[in-house]
Amino acid sequence: MPDVATDEERSAFKEYPLLELLGVSKQFAVSHNGKKAKLSAVNDVSFTVKKGSTLGIVGESGCGKSTLARVITGLHPPTDGEMIFANRQIKSRRGKEMAKAMQMVFQDPHSALNPRSTIGESIGFPLTVQGVSKAETAKRVAQVIADVGLPAAYASHYPHQLSGGQRQRVNIARALVVQPQLVVLDEAVSALDKSIQAQVLNLLSDLQEQYGLTYVFISHDLNVVEYISDEVVVMYLGQVVEQSPAEELYRRPLHPYSQVLLSAIPNLDPTRSRREESVDEIDGEIPSPIDPPSGCRFRTRCPFAQDICAAERPERVEAEPDHFVACHIYTGKVTVPTTESLFEGAHA
Ligand SMILES: Nc1ncnc2c1ncn2[C@@H]1O[C@H](COP(=O)(O)OP(=O)(O)OP(=O)(O)O)[C@@H](O)[C@H]1O
Ligand SMILES: [Mg+2]
């Protein structure tokens, strides 16, 4: 293998699936009106994340993004379904190697770091736990501190001496020090100011190249997801309604829910005058995941819903190359004037 991959080799490399989810569900046992109930936080989710790429996950608050992140990284056992990582089935009890290979970075930089540990100790902690020698730990900690763009002297600093952006660099360093293959970032830049956010996003892109990382990137900020993602999954009430290459999804969302969600993006680009509506324009409340609608979960708020939508859950169909959607308009069981006018209508 040559040292430097050509663009062609790099794109071929990206085609290899690192993580596959097949019908993954997560239910929580909850008490509802004094009775035991099941809350369906994630339901029958299937998708593939290609090695070296970034998969973005978007959807309204409560749609199951963090739950899915926790199921992927092993913090929650799935209730149902299968996950395959690097061609190996993920068992309910993960081995050490599998656990190391998937790391997570959370939103809150404050709570994630121990205030009484130095930055160097915090970053080195996962290695110490693994029994890595002191000398090797120090070497790897110094390297990763440099890689995330912090001065070497910060190893002896404490979290309160750092800015929010710097603390989030430390959290990224702590995830990377164990040399993972997949990093799940759950609202990892959401608490940062816009300018700092841009710096951390650029850092993440550089680290992805340098370490050959694969990202699952979760954010409620649709602009950030568009910027960083190769592919995007849209979730609604625990289910995936659409998956597509990012550019294609933002240019031409197919699912009625995605259309309204994406039309609500605050307009940063003056050439895109149509994104001015608010997500409130979807009729009705999000139904409870304790008693989700039958069939298509979006049907209670969908302007195009017909009887079939309550009777039958729409299968995921490849409406366009690499562009998947779960909606009866695309299974052919619901007819709207034309998909083109549906698209125009959502952005009118
Ligand atoms: N440990 C838990 N026990 C019971 N219910 C839970 C638990 N964790 C999450 N839920 C419920 O599961 C659903 C999905 O929550 P989740 O946190 O995954 O959503 P989210 O998409 O990450 O939302 P947000 O954008 O606000 O972070 C919600 O209805 C939530 O109340
Ligand atoms: Mg969340």
Short description:
35% of the residues lie in helices and 23% in strands. The protein is α/β, with parallel strands linked by helices. The chain has an eight-stranded mixed sheet with strand order 6-7-8-3-9-10-12-11, with helices on both faces. A four-stranded antiparallel sheet has the order 2-1-4-5.
What does this entry look like structurally?
This protein has 348 residues and is an alpha/beta fold. It has a domain at 251-348. The protein has 14 helices and 12 strands. The strands form 2 sheets. The protein has an 8-stranded mixed beta sheet, sandwiched between helices. It has a 4-stranded antiparallel beta sheet with strand order 2-1-4-5. Helix 8 links the parallel strand 7 (182-186) and strand 8. It is elongated and about 65 Å long. It binds adenosine-5'-triphosphate (ATP) and magnesium ion (MG). Residues 28, 30, 39, 41, 59, 61-67, 220, 289 line the site of adenosine-5'-triphosphate. Magnesium ion (MG) binds next to helix 2.
Question: Strand share of the residues?
Answer: 15-25%
The major β-sheet equals: 8 strands, mixed
Unreliable residue runs: 267-280
Q: How do the strands of the widest beta sheet line up side by side?
A: 6-7-8-3-9-10-12-11
Shape: elongated
- Number of helical segments with 4 or more residues: 14
